[in-house]
Specification:
By secondary structure, this protein is mostly beta strands. The protein has a single domain, classed as Carbohydrate-selective porin OprB (Porin, Beta Barrel), CATH 2.40.160.180. Helix content is about 15%, strand content about 45%. Strands 1-2-3-4-5-6-7-8-9-12-13-14-15-16-17-18 form a 16-stranded antiparallel β-barrel. Strands 10-11 form a two-stranded antiparallel ribbon. β16 and β17 form a beta hairpin. The chain is globular, with a radius of gyration of 22 Å. The N and C termini lie far apart (about 45 Å).
Length: about 425
């Protein structure tokens, strides 16, 4: 881990200053232990199809729940990038959960099955040409598949949990809740991690078999660890669901530790976490070759830091107020194109009077290319700059139960780190339907 240690020492002071400032701000809000009582969702107020005459709530209480969410986006490049143009794309999620304690009497046991289908164009690949991505449902292959299918067993009042099956590690690892508002891909998981491995890590849109363990030493602290197949799916066949434990795949090891204080009268109080990842199988160096001209095998690894804190809470308004976040991650720089990435932002819920569910978000991000990748690109005849900087402004609001609209504007400076591309302006609109 010496590579990680050297890079951590050079950047840790800035990270710690940001984290300390946000941590101090969070202490101005009184804390209390979170409620462990699970309540049924407000199906009538949150779903297009409502509560099915009350039967949906009854099914939930009996241990069965079905969520169907359809997103359709219209995104276009107004100026800059690869070329001007507009395209539509969509994403369908069908998530079924079974609480087997209620259904079968197996205490602490549950099953989740998540089906996924994507269609449409590629606004970033065809028009914008950014490093970080402009749309978190964009895929290169239009297909339906099983994204997740796992069984989970909890013990000791949910303080210990084990999970096995197809698993999206970004469900629990490298996550800031407030960052989930943004449509830009980098706000989901850092580019330095997302671009790792032979076929990416086990995240949208392709996942792998995994074993995940979680321990909560105290109500507001957690330890997460997972071992996953190092090559999700089949790189040669991206269609459908491919599950293969091929020889030489190796494994991806991920761990995260965090503190999640709960603030008074808020469902969400903050998060402070650090994580690390490493592939057991060596990957090709992006530049260095041996005497025979073959890429030198290297260990691929990285670390990340997450900070999230409420900065202002409207009195007596529950979750309404301002929350800010900061994320920073870096990799070895030998086996991936990205050396580091970071993002930060703020989300205000209920800013517009009478629109309590409306969320206004402003985020900034930067992705940096490794020196080795830039050297290799220059040798191939395409010199690249060191980084790309992005800005996103978005607003999401419910216009009808289960119907949300989200206009979006993004601006990228030095897109693709390509000196031949001019700064790119992206505008988009997302329609989300929850049935």
């Amino acid at each position: 881990m010496s590579i990680l240690g050297d890079k951590l020492n050079s950047r840790a002071s800035g990270i710690l200053l940001v984290a300390a400032g946000m941590l101090l701000s969070s202490q101005t809000i009184a804390q209390e232990a979170p409620s462990t009582e699970a309540k049924a969702p407000d199906f009538a107020g949150e779903k297009v199809t409502g509560d099915w005459g009350g039967s949906r709530t009854q099914l939930y209480k009996n241990g069965f729940n079905l969520d169907l969410v359809y997103k359709v986006d219209l995104f276009g490049v107004v100026s800059g990038g690869l070329k001007r143009g507009t395209t539509a794309l969509d994403n369908l999620d069908i998530i079924t959960t079974f609480d087997n304690e209620k259904l079968l009497g197996i205490k602490g046991n549950s099953v989740l099955i998540h089906l996924l289908n994507n269609n449409g164009g590629e606004p970033n690949g065809r028009y914008a040409g950014t490093l970080q991505g402009i749309n978190n449902i964009e895929v290169t292959t239009q297909t339906a598949k099983v994204l997740e299918a796992y069984i989970q067993q909890n013990f000791w009042d949910d303080r210990v949990s084990f999970l096995v099956g197809l698993y999206d590690l970004n469900r629990e690892f490298y996550v800031n809740d407030s960052a989930g508002l943004f449509i830009g891909s980098t706000f989901g998981i850092g580019n330095e991690f997302a671009a790792s491995g032979k076929n990416g890590p086990s995240i949208f849109p392709t996942t792998s078999l995994a074993f995940r363990a979680q321990v909560k030493p105290a109500p507001q602290t957690y330890l997460l660890a997972a071992i996953l197949d190092g090559v999700p799916g089949d790189p040669g066949d991206p269609h459908g669901t491919q599950v293969s434990l091929g020889h030489g795949d190796g494994a991806l090891l991920v761990a995260e530790a965090g503190f999640t204080p709960e603030a008074k009268d808020r469902a969400f109080g903050g998060k402070y976490a650090v994580g690390a990842w490493r592939y057991t199988d060596k990957l090709d160096d992006v530049r260095d070759v041996d005497g025979g001209g073959d890429p030198v095998p290297r260990r691929s690894q990285g670390m990340y830091f997450l900070v999230e804190s409420p900065l202002y809470r409207e009195k007596g308004k529950g979750d309404e107020g301002l929350v800010a976040f900061f994320r920073f991650g870096f990799s070895d720089g030998d086996t991936t194109a990205f050396d580091y990435s970071w993002s930060a932002g703020a989300v205000y819920t209920g800013l517009i009077p009478g629109r309590d569910t409306g969320k206004l978000g402003f985020g900034i991000s930067q992705a940096g290319l490794s020196d080795k990748f830039r050297d290799a690109s220059a040798l191939a005849g395409k010199p690249l700059d060191s980084q790309e900087f992005g800005i996103e402004l978005t607003y999401r609001d419910d216009v009808y139960p289960g119907v949300a609209l989200q206009p979006n504007v993004q601006y990228f400076i030095n897109p693709g780190a390509d000196p031949a591309l001019s700064n790119v302006l992206v505008v988009g609109l997302r329609l989300e339907l929850s049935f």
